[in-house]
Amino acid sequence: MSKFWSERLQATEPYIPGEQPNNTNVIKLNTNENPYPPSPKALKAIQEATDETLRLYPPPTVNELRETIAKYHGVHPDQVFIGNGSDEVLAFSFMAFFNPGEPILFPDITYSFYPVYAKLFNIDYKRVPVRSDFTLPVEEFFQSEGGVIFPNPNAPTGLTLSLIEVESIVNQNPDQVVIIDEAYIDFGGQSAVQLVNQYENLLVIQTLSKSRSLAGMRVGFAIGDHQLIEGLNRIKNSFNSYTLDRLAIAAAKAAFDDEEYFQDVRGQIIHTREQTSKRLHTLGFEVIDSKANFLFVRHPHVDAEDLYLQLKEQNIFVRYFNKPRIQEYLRISIGTADEMEQFIIALEPVLQEVKK
Ligand SMILES: Cc1ncc(COP(=O)(O)O)c(C=O)c1O
């Protein structure tokens, strides 16, 4: 703590990102990245965009990429906002749509950036407890005072609400903004994007970090009513007009243009997730039904933190959250089929060693 820190900074408890080890000789299953490279077309687009035009600012309205995303999702370009990763889009949304003194609702077990943004922007919030099986009690999100936000699929559980359940929450909060964080939607859930023309209070946020293998380029976007999008643009232009660089714009556009590669990669991850889930189940783990690119698991006879540490010693990184209600669980991102095979092979002797 420094005396020079503002009161706001002193009151802030920053988000702690997952470890990014320097060593490349690790099996990295801890930050829900995509184990496959970006589309070759995206890599080529980055190379082609690496030219003398980098001396110029990027287009502040990101029109071309907005048109690409709008066409892909069947909406008008004025219904699309693009930011530097969906984290930035989320942060702008907290600033644009939520108010101090009007508590917003999110689940108690969820993406841990939400309370960080709420505190940073002085927005009150209530955590809605998920049930003991981690499912969301949908009705508890009705009639919020200040708005609602949750990921679908949820993180770190991977559990998914149906479109009808999502719609009921949107419908029951007509005067508040409901944000659906669809970071993992491409791995099996039903997207709420198809509802945006029906509900002026619905904002859907997605990212290219997961299903399109572009976490390193930082591109996320929101789709919603044009007035919500205008609100986000006003926040952005009060903060930094050029949040996306030229290379990120080129990569993102090319990634959307390569549908075949996208379908192939996401299909492989879904397949590997199901295979891994079965293997873990056979090893005695309880595996939550995930529609994301990770599994949330617990072993009744093994301490989760011990297991996390033992795996780390073998250069296998998974995510352990030392937090109430989930200290017995590990979150395991889905790697390639080969990485998951190595993970399972490494797991067997470790399980023997750390059994309680
Ligand atoms: C639920 C959820 N939302 C948003 C993000 C942020 O993704 P990005 O900023 O890379 O788009 C993540 C990243 O792990 C996440 O788990």
TrEMBL record:
It comes from the Bacteria. It holds the Pfam family Aminotran_1_2. Residues 25-345 form the Aminotransferase class I/classII large domain. Homodimer. This is Histidinol-phosphate aminotransferase. The modification N6-(pyridoxal phosphate)lysine is found at residue 210. GO terms for molecular function: histidinol-phosphate transaminase activity; pyridoxal phosphate binding. It catalyses: L-histidinol phosphate + 2-oxoglutarate = 3-(imidazol-4-yl)-2-oxopropyl phosphate + L-glutamate. HAMAP family: HisC_aminotrans_2 (MF_01023). One of its GO terms (biological process) is L-histidine biosynthetic process. It comes from Salinibacillus xinjiangensis. Its EC number is 2.6.1.9. Its cofactor is pyridoxal 5'-phosphate. It is an enzyme of class 2 (transferase). Belongs to the class-II pyridoxal-phosphate-dependent aminotransferase family. Histidinol-phosphate aminotransferase subfamily. Pathway: Amino-acid biosynthesis; L-histidine biosynthesis; L-histidine from 5-phospho-alpha-D-ribose 1-diphosphate: step 7/9. Keywords: Amino-acid biosynthesis, Aminotransferase, Histidine biosynthesis, Pyridoxal phosphate, Transferase.
